[in-house]
Amino acid sequence: METIYKAATKAIGGRKGHVKSEDGPIDMKLSLPKALGGDGGDGANPEQFFGAAYAACFGGAVEAVANKHKVEIGDFEVTAHVSLGKTEEGDLQLAVILDTYLPKVTDIETGEKLVNEAHVMCPFSRATRDNIDVTLNLMLDE
Questions:
Q1: CA–CA gap between residue 121 and residue 57 (Å, rounded)
Q2: Of 55, 129, 47, which is closest to residue 85 (Cα–Cα)?
Q3: Which InterPro entries does the annotation name (predicted)?
Q4: Which of 71, 101, 127, 141 is the most buried (most CB within 10 A)?
């Protein structure tokens, strides 16, 4: 792989600590959700960061694919619903549902083509492929 960008983010204290990116934009307290035995404080958690990163990356891929096919998608949105669960063996496992809203797309076939191609292109989708369950939902106006 030819590296074109690098980022470094440090976590101190695990899920109940603090995260800070090397260049400064991320500088946040972490809290353990109540569902995981924590106090559910006002800090963020890794699943929220993963969801934000995946939604943003997938949105970039959707936009790139739409531009490639010259399809107007409007003020699109991607919402990543990240679930943390346990496998049959008791290991923790992620699952993601990506809801992609394309307000200017009027037909399902075009929308599905864009979303499916974005899933092939997106680095987060490629990194998670065959590792976690990812469900793609196309959201169109009726």
A1: 10
A2: 47
A3: KH_dom-like_a/b, OHR, OsmC/Ohr_fam, OsmC/Ohrsf
A4: 101
Q: Detail the DSSP E strand segments found in 87-141.
A: 92-101, 133-139
Domain ranges, residue 102: 46-139
pLDDT in tens, 84-124: 999 999 999 999 999 999 999 999 999 999 999 999 999 99
33-92 pLDDT, tens digit each: 999 999 989 999 999 999 999 999 999 999 999 999 999 999 999 999 999 999 999 999
What is the side-by-side strand order in the sheet with 18-21? 9-12, 18-21, 27-29
CATH of the domain at 10: 2.20.25.10
Domain total in the chain: 2
Q: Are residues 86 and 130 in the same domain?
A: yes
Least Cα distance to 138 among 44, 73, 94 occurs for: 73
Do 13 and 75 belong together in one domain?
Answer: no
State the pTM of this model.
0.94
Q: Given the DSSP bridges, would you call strands 77-86 and 27-29 parallel, antiparallel or unpaired? A: unpaired
Q: How long, in residues, is the chain?
A: 142
